[in-house]
């Protein structure tokens, strides 16, 4: 059974961590996210474990599935099936995170709502922003010592120390990220809307169909093809949230931030500043963004 699971929430450097840890921890050969404990639980634990049958036994084994974070089903199922699992939760400025999440959903044609409305109404964005509410549940299910809490700002300051913290937690041997291809670059960024939405929707559905049937190699071929780039890249760039929208979302999320402060002992005053994210975006937010 897996030794650790990175549960998210989405757009908090989970993909970057996965890329850094590959070769130093055991992952599925085909995909970062199995979604087993949310979408595919009915297929049984043996179906899930086939994803890891190639993993080297001397390395810690796990996955990163960011949509587990805001899923009570996933939390309960993992606690029941893997009670000693080590859980990794990562957090970033909640407005930055929600905006990045919304851009991904728009690019993948999962929503037509504008940013502020989607942040309030779309379950994936809304619930993934409830940091304190769901972190309390993961800690209650697994114990504080078995839940690693990470902050995106620490990654920005010192990527090596960030990776070292995760390696120690999961029991992976220490390694240097210096010289690794993606150690200093953005991963899975989304800067523009799809160029050809109708075709893009069909391509997206094809990839989902292939992945659901475990044809992951074929899905990867499509995902990295010229057709994907033709449909999904090069559309209109995203507009930044207005300062007013930024302020309203921060006010709404302030109680969640305060619970996170209480649970971690960390001062997150900057996250509660009404114009914090807007100022960062105006000065070039995408320069160092990692998914």
Structural features, described:
Strands 2-1-3-4 form a 4-stranded parallel beta sheet, with helices on both faces. It has 2 domains: 4-186 and 243-287, P-loop containing nucleotide triphosphate hydrolases (Rossmann fold, 3-Layer(aba) Sandwich); 192-237, no CATH class. The chain contains 15 helices and 4 strands. With 291 residues, it is α/β, with parallel strands linked by helices. 49% of the residues lie in helices and 7% in strands.
Structure keywords:
291 residues; alpha/beta; 2 domains; 4 strands; globular
> What is CATH's topology name of the largest domain?
Rossmann fold
How would you name the CATH homologous superfamily of the largest domain? P-loop containing nucleotide triphosphate hydrolases
Instruction: Kindly report how far apart the N and C termini lie.
Output: 26 Å
Number of domains: 2
Strand order of the largest sheet: 2-1-3-4
